[in-house]
Amino acid sequence: MGIATREAYGQVLKELAENKDIVVLDADLGKATKSISFKEVAPDRFFDMGIAEGDMIGTAAGLATCGKIPFASTFAIFAAGRAYEQIRNSVAYPNLNVKIAATHAGVTVGEDGGSHQAIEDISLMRGIPNMVVLNPADGIEAKKAIFSAVDYNGPVYLRLGRATTEDIHNDDYNFKIGKGEILRQGSDVAIIATGIMVSKAIKSAELLSKEGLEVMVVNISTIKPIDSELIVEVAKNTGKVVTVEEHSVIGGLGSAVTEVLSEKYPVVVKRIGINDEFGQSGNPESLLNYYGLTVENIVSTAKSF
Known about the structure:
Layout lengths: L4 H12 L5 E5 L3 H4 L2 H6 L4 E3 L4 H13 L3 E7 H7 L1 H9 L6 E5 L17 H6 L5 E3 L4 H13 L4 E4 L21 E4 L4 E5 L3 H14 L4 E5 L2 E3 L3 H11 L1 E9 L4 H12 L3 E7 L9 H7 L4 H9 L2
Parallel strand pairs: 1-2, 1-3, 3-4, 4-6, 5-6, 8-9, 8-11, 11-12
Antiparallel strand pairs: 5-10, 7-9
Helix pairs in contact: 1-8, 4-6, 9-13, 10-11
C-alpha cells in the first residue's frame, strides 16, 4: 500500500523549498491539502490566503509575473469551481507559470458529500487553452508529476486525492508530461485508466487473464495534452477500448479518448465513470461501489465486448 497523492504533494513541497523561486499559497486548508509542510521549512514563502480562492489565484498570478513559481492549493471543488474565472482569465489567458494543486478530487472525498466531491474538474480545466491537466495514479507518480510541473513553464492543474492509493510504480519510473504508459500488454481489449482507477484496471486485467482474455492496461496520467499516438496504437492493437475514471463520463478521460479515436481510428469505446449525477456522503469504498467504480464492473464491461 502506498500513500494518498495529497500526502505525496506535501512531501515534495519540503524538497522543493530549496528552490527559492517557489512559493506556496493555500486557502485556509493547509493541513488537509498538506501544503502546510512547506510552511514548516519555508514560512516566509508560504501564504495562507484565507477562504478566498479567487484572491489566492489572482495573487499567484501576480507572483508568477515576478518570476516566482507559485503552487496554489485548495480542494478541487474550490479550485476548479469557485476560482474558475480567475484561473481562466488571470492564469491561463496570459499563460502564466502557476501550478494549481487541487486535492480531495472525486467521490473518495467521502463523507464530505456531493457539495465537496469534484467530479467535473477535469472537464473544466482541460477546456481552458494553455492548461496542462495531470492526474497521477499513485504517490510515486504524483511526486514525479509535481517535479515535472516545476520544470514546465506554464499553467498546470494537478488533480490529487484524499484516499490512499496502491503503488503501481517504483522510484525508477520516468514521468513525462503528455505521455501515457502501457502497464500490461494484451490484444483482446484495452483498459485505459487514470488516477486511482489505474490500480483497479490492473486487477481487472489479472482476473480477465484467468478467463483467457488478454487485456492491455494503459495509464493516462496526462489528460491534457493527451497522448493521441499511444491511444491510436492501443486501439489498433485491440479494436476495443474501456475507459475508467473517478470523474464524470462527460468531459473527462473517456471523452478525451473518444475525441481522439473518432477522428483518427474509430472503434467502440465503453466509458466507466460517474454517469451524469452528483456524489453523496458515504465512506470512499462504498461510494466507489455505488457508482460502479469497481474491479467487478470493469471486468463485466470488458467481457461485454
